[in-house]
Amino acid sequence: MIAPQDLTAKIAADNLRTWLEGEVLRDHASENQRERYAAGVLPLDELANLARAVLFAPFAEAKRWSKLAAWNVRHAPAHVVTQDLVTYEARIGALLRGPEWDALKRINAMLDRANEHPWLVRSGQRFALELRTHTATCSVCKKTCGQPSALVSVVWADRPLSREYAL
Fold it and tell me: Which tens digit of pLDDT belongs to each residue from 45-102?
């Protein structure tokens, strides 16, 4: 048997999720998307992408992070570079140079503005930021390169949404 307080919390969470979905559909979806949602055939990732576009709008000026490639590694001379020779790793935390620190401060200011969105205020959710370091290492010449990033995430309608930005 479900305890009354658990049932009340579940109903409140379901009502909030329904309200959030209704808000994004009403103001940001096409007629086609609203029809598919009503018919129960709109993919959840498409709905989440609509919300992501709205909630991450304050970050429009931030440069999106792009994955390191084999050519980013400064390989030893006379060595043929192929993607399969490079391994990639992402770890939490980063050491930042001056320009990267400035970029992080700008992203934090954008995050503060994004946290004021009415959907987040009503739902009690807030954006979070996690520093990361991405590295690429050549298995032949052992050369490596690294790149810091800021992973920005938020929970919307019980769905995690995130984007990663270059620093």
Answer: 999 999 999 999 999 999 999 999 887 888 777 777 777 889 999 999 999 999 999 9
154 Cβ neighbours under 8 A, 6+ residues apart: 55, 114, 120, 125, 126, 127, 128, 160, 161, 162
Domain hosting 53: range is 4-166
Cβ(41)–Cβ(19) under 8 Å? no
What is the H or E stretch that residue 37 is in? Answer: helix 31-38
Domain count, the chain: 1
Do the Cβ atoms of 165 and 113 come closer than 8 Å? no
28: region left, alpha or beta (phi > 0 left; psi from -120 to 50 alpha): alpha
Which tens digit of pLDDT belongs to each residue from 15-42? 999 999 999 999 999 999 999 999 999 9
Residue 67 CB partners (closer than 8 Å, separation 6+): 88, 134
The pTM (predicted TM-score) of the whole model is 0.87
Q: How far, in Å, CA of 140 to CA of 82, rounded?
A: 10
The residue written with tokens 């498409």 in the block is 46
